[in-house]
Amino acid sequence: MTKLKLGPIADDTPVKMAVELPAGLHRDLVLYGELLGRSGGQGPIAPQKLVVPMLERFLASDRGFAKVRRSVGAGRRLGD
After folding, report:
1. 3-state secondary structure the chain
2. d(CA 24, CA 60)
3. What percent of the chain has pLDDT over 70?
């Protein structure tokens, strides 16, 4: 078989998750969405729209996680 320059393509199919949040955390997310919407000159932003960017920002800023992720390799889990 021919050796191609591209390796395997990562599966970027979205994964649906259902989570239960404590009431206080939900209230804080609602308030955060209202404040963010106001500061951006738009209406309130729904809490479910905040979760992905917040998690991405959190993971990107965690130096310990970034170090382990680099050593394990992107796309792999620690147990693999």
Report:
1. CCCCCCCCCCCCCCCCCCCCCCHHHHHHHHHHHHHHHHHCCCCCCCHHHHHHHHHHHHHHHCHHHHHHHHHHCCCCCCCC
2. 25
3. 89
The whole-model pTM stands at 0.71
**Could you report the per-residue pLDDT of 45-62, keeping only the tens digit for each?**
999 999 999 999 999 999
| Residue ranges per structural domain of the chain | 23-72
Nearest to 74 by CA among 16, 2, 5, 7: 7
CA 29, CA 22: separation in Å to the nearest integer?
11
Residue 52 CA to chain centroid, in angstroms? 4
Quickly tell me which residue has 């992905």 as its tokens: 52
